[in-house]
Specification:
Layout lengths: L10 E2 L10 E4 L2 H4 L8 E3 H9 L2 H7 L13 H23 E4 L9 H8 L5 H15 L3 E4 H16 L1 H6 L3 E2 L2 E5 L6 E4 L3 E3 L3 E8 L8 H11 L1 H16 L4 E8 L6 E5 L2 H24 L16 H13 L5
Parallel strand pairs: 1-2, 3-8, 4-5, 10-11
Antiparallel strand pairs: 2-7, 6-9, 7-8, 9-10, 11-12
Helix pairs in contact: 2-3, 2-10, 2-11, 4-7, 5-6, 10-11
């Protein structure tokens, strides 16, 4: 085991500069996802979408695509970022990154209220509305509601009180690991929620159950559904590239409903190696699509309708009884 990595070994990348050497970097999440290297880069999200969806789904929103669609931010993505922020630095860091909209906030000003304000004849309510929303728009922080803030803080306290979760998350948060893949020449960027340089990386997942029990089985199904085996393997590979050792990887899942139970799931090494295989396949295909300019979608291959086998058998049997089978 090599000596533990210290904060001094993490590189602070100045604004305007690009990553040119492999290493551990301290950069913003937004910068991590927006091509911070001196060549094309991929994140785990890109590779998982290549594998679980189609290349066309990747390219449609990719920031290397000059004709990309604008991605609509979902509540889940925004809340995920906020929770990651809380995990990293508690309510203090959360407040530096997010602005809380109070429940008694004024409605957005109407055109008439804005005109009246500009002409110096606004009403008290109109002035309050214009100035409140002007301050919000000028604030560079993301927004959460009071209810969302309370939920994040409540879940964070439960998480912090879980001794097992606290132990495995006792690493350096939000570090970007960067390395260049030799086979494709593409930069790889992994950013697990915590990196413990004793040999463990973790990712935190807030989970909604939509009426089903919060259980090991549900967590495992979400790992499969969202390719978290790939995400874990990507982080492990980055650690191995930079530290010459393959770490362990675990998911910390937390229920978004009270009492906000926490479940820890270690992904076994064999499954991580399967995830690594899937990452390699996705990375190779990304390089091929980038070189060719062709990003196949779900309609790339035409085919015939496939009736479910159970229905076909049932209907054929009924047709045979009536002497109408094909």
């Amino acid at each position: 085991m090599r000596d533990l990595l210290t904060h001094s070994e993490i590189i602070d990348l100045p604004e305007g500069e690009l990553i040119t050497e492999p290493g551990f970097y301290r950069i913003s999440l937004d910068r991590h996802h927006n091509q911070p290297c001196d060549g094309p880069s991929v994140t785990s999200g890109v590779l998982r979408k290549m594998e679980l969806e189609t290349p066309a789904d990747v390219w449609a929103f990719h920031n290397l695509n000059p004709n990309r669609w604008e991605r609509e931010e979902t509540v889940a993505l925004r809340m995920g970022r906020a929770m990651a922020c809380y995990v990293e630095g508690g309510p203090e860091l959360l407040e530096t990154e997010f602005r809380v909209l109070p429940k008694d906030k004024p409605k957005r000003p109407t055109a008439a209220q804005q005109t009246a304000y500009d002409e110096g004849r606004g009403t008290e309510a109109g002035i309050r509305s214009v100035e409140f929303w002007k301050a919000v728009e000028e604030d560079l922080r993301d927004i959460v509601t009071e209810d969302e803030w309370d939920l994040i803080c409540t879940m964070g306290k439960v998480l912090a009180a879980d001794t097992a979760a606290s132990a495995v998350m006792d690493g350096i948060p939000e570090v970007s690991m960067a390395w260049k893949d030799e086979a494709t020449g593409i930069w790889c960027l992994a950013r697990p929620d915590t990196v413990s340089f004793s040999g463990l990386v973790t990712d935190y997942k807030k989970m909604a159950t939509r009426g089903t029990p919060f259980s090991d089985r549900l967590v495992d199904s979400r790992i499969t559904q969202h390719g978290y085996d790939m995400q874990g393997a990507f982080a492990c590979e980055g650690f191995e590239q930079l530290r010459d050792e393959w770490p362990g990887f675990g998911i910390i899942a937390q229920w978004d409903k009270a009492p906000h139970h926490v479940i820890l799931r270690e992904i076994p090494d064999e499954d991580l190696r399967i995830g690594q295989f899937r990452n390699r396949r996705a990375l190779t295909r990304f390089r091929e699509c980038l070189d060719s300019g062709h990003w196949p979608g779900p309609g790339e291959v035409t085919g015939a309708y496939q009736r479910p086998a159970w229905q076909r058998e049932l209907l054929i049997e009924e047709m045979q009884q009536g002497n109408t089978a094909p």
